[in-house]
Amino acid sequence: MSTRSGRSAMDRRRVLAGAAGATLAVALRPAIAATLPRTETTEAAIRRFLGDNPIRPGRVTLDLPPLVENGNTVPLAVSVESPMTAEDHVRRIGVFNEKNPQPNVMTVHLRPGAGRAQVSTRIRLADTQRITAIAEMSDGTYWSASADAIVTLAACLEG
Q1: Which fold, 42-151?
Q2: For 68-107, how does the pLDDT look when each residue is reduced to its tens digit (9 = 90+)?
Q3: Among positive and negative, which fits the CA dihedral 119, 111, 146, 60?
Q4: Structural domain boundaries in the chain
Q5: How far is CA 7 from CA 13, 18, 91, in A?
Q6: DSSP string, 83-146
Q7: pLDDT tens profile 5-36
Q8: How far is residue 46 from each of residues 34, 42, 84, 107, 139, measured CA to CA in Å?
Q9: What is the pTM of this model?
Q10: Distance (Å, rounded) from C-alpha 65 to C-alpha 74?
């Protein structure tokens, strides 16, 4: 056997070994995500957002697909019933989750000049979980909505 064909055989073995390792890593991702420590509880993150103020259901609409094939890119839209005037507007919207390593997905600050209290983005979800959106109004009240998402392929795997 020549040196050239010996190198080819070694290169093929390395490629196959690398592919097998990558396949195993992808297969173990959901198990790894479940073991990652959370930075804080969802309840603590929500309390940090609103203090001791009560949360009321309503005025917030959370649009999230109920079944998510891939947790790496999940469309999310939040809208709040508000005229968005100087006297009555949404100050900020917080989105929280139950199982990702970080419970506060995002916080968006709004002003009356925004025109509409509506935001949309894509988020990552580590597992099947409940997502909660909370809006702080200019009068100091807090309104919320929640939605469940079933994730078949997890994301948010740090490390």
Answers
A1: Immunoglobulin-like (2.60.40)
A2: 988 899 999 999 999 999 999 999 999 999 998 899 999 9
A3: negative
A4: 42-151
A5: 10, 16, 64
A6: ---SSS-EEEEEEEESSSSSSEEEEEE--GGGSS-EEEEEE--SSSEEEEEEEEETTS-EEEEE
A7: 556 655 666 655 555 555 544 444 444 555 55
A8: 21, 6, 24, 11, 19
A9: 0.73
A10: 8
